[in-house]
């Protein structure tokens, strides 16, 4: 992240200095202002959705829900705690229903729970699943198309669903492959190290 | 549209269920707002850093130049040239994506092929960098490693699929 950030910022600033040097600094401040606008909006979204999440937790619905989807979640994210499974279930379900706010919050909690118990591969898998979007109904886009006077605003529904299926499924497959090959390498190293330890004094 | 009713109806059902289970709803909202405040504070640095970088990236014209450069190879893969910039912007900024989608709709017409592709891509993708930063914001280790590259590749695959699917359907 640090490398990507520095490279992108450096390139942008360099181009800005050539193109419009007077704008360079104010552009950065514009960016920060946009971040503040979003943060305030997020604060409002969090306040509402965290409340809904609290209701879900205290009524015990989250556990019921988790049990419903747990076969899938447990298979995808092996070796996590029950708390983590609860949050992952809420995260995936609210994502599908288009409740982005609740999804993000449950996702952050799930990441925290997973950090204490598991390999980091599961955490990355959760991020990839979320970052490739698993929304069932693209409500915002349909609304925009309807407002622009489309003949059939909702007809993008099926292609959108299939497109997210492609990105999310390929994400899961790639993540699982990476984790699999990493573990294999690990296992091989683990069997190699004892022998190496034995001959180490020779060096 | 049924989708308009999904959320409010679910919320009402949840409220009813809470009353049955004797959950203190008012307290839930107090707690929610309180935690929301600290969460927004914790997430802000990540948003600010990314936004500063993206704003500079957009204003510098590099985004436009890269999109120009990618038009040829992308059209080879079946992506109409009008949406090259959208594909570049999608993982960076949600608001930017929506704004660009509206531009494309205004330019090409709502039911044209490029505008439909753009709509599917916008509806089927997330802002990868924002998600990755926010999800790891509460974790002590920031070892994202392959999370972002894999997400980007898959988002791109999804976009290619979108263009092909729109052509078919």
Instruction: Give the strand content of chain A.
Output: under 5%
- What kind of sheet is the major sheet of chain B? none
Helix content of chain A: over 70%
Shape of chain A: globular
Q: Could you characterize what this model shows?
A:
The complex is a heterodimer of chains A (203) and B (169). Chain A is mainly alpha-helical and 203 residues long. Chain A is built from eight helices and no strands. Chain A has helices at 2-19, 24-58, 61-76, 82-96, 100-117, 120-131, 139-147, 157-199. Mean pLDDT of chain A is 83; it is low at 198-203. Chain B starts with a helix and ends with a helix. Chain B has helices spanning 3-20, 25-59, 62-76, 84-89, 94-108, 113-123, 128-135, 147-168. Chain B is an all-alpha fold. The longest helix of chain B has 35 residues, at 25-59. Chain B has one domain (19-168). At the A-B interface, helix 1, helix 2, helix 5, helix 6 and helix 7 of A face helix 1, helix 2, helix 5, helix 6 and helix 7 of B.
List the topology elements:
The complex is a heterodimer of chains A (203) and B (169).
Chain A: H1 2-19, H2 24-58, H3 61-76, H4 82-96, H5 100-117, H6 120-131, H7 139-147, H8 157-199
Chain B: H1 3-20, H2 25-59, H3 62-76, H4 84-89, H5 94-108, H6 113-123, H7 128-135, H8 147-168
Helix pairs in contact in B: 2-7, 5-6, 6-8
């Amino acid at each position: 992240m640090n490398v990507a950030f520095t490279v992108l910022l450096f390139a942008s600033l360099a181009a800005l200095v050539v193109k419009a040097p007077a704008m360079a600094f104010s552009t950065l401040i514009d960016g920060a202002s946009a971040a503040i606008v979003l943060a305030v909006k997020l604060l409002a979204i969090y306040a509402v959705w965290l409340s809904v999440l609290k209701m879900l937790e205290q009524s015990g619905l989250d556990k019921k829900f988790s049990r419903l989807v747990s076969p899938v979640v447990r298979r995808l994210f092996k070796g996590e705690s029950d708390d983590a499974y609860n949050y992952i279930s809420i995260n995936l379900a609210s994502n599908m229903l288009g409740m982005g706010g609740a999804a993000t919050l449950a996702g952050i909690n799930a990441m925290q729970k997973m950090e204490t118990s598991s390999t980091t591969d599961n955490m990355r898998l959760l991020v990839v699943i979320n970052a490739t979007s698993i929304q069932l109904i693209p409500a915002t886009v349909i609304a925009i198309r309807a407002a622009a006077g489309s003949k059939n605003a909702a007809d993008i529904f099926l292609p959108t669903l299939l497109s997210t299926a492609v990105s999310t499924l390929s994400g899961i497959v790639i993540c699982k492959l990476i984790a699999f090959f990493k573990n294999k390498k690990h296992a091989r190293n683990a069997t190699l190290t004892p022998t190496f330890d034995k001959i180490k004094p020779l060096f | 549209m049924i989708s308009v009713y999904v959320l409010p109806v679910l919320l009402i059902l949840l409220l009813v269920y809470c009353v049955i289970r004797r959950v203190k709803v008012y307290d839930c909202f107090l707690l929610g707002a309180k935690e929301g405040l600290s969460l927004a504070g914790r997430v802000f640095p990540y948003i600010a850093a990314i936004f500063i970088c993206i704003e500079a990236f957009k204003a510098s014209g590099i985004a436009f130049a890269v999109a120009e450069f990618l038009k040829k190879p992308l059209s080879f893969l079946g992506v109409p040239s009008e949406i090259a910039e959208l594909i570049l912007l999608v993982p960076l900024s949600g608001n930017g994506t929506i704004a660009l989608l509206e531009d494309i709709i205004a330019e090409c017409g709502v039911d044209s092929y490029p505008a439909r592709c753009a709509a599917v891509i916008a509806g089927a993708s997330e802002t990868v960098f924002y998600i990755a930063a926010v999800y790891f914001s509460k974790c002590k280790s920031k070892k994202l490693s392959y999370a972002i590259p894999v997400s980007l590749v898959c988002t791109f695959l999804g976009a290619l699929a979108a263009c092909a699917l729109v052509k078919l359907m």
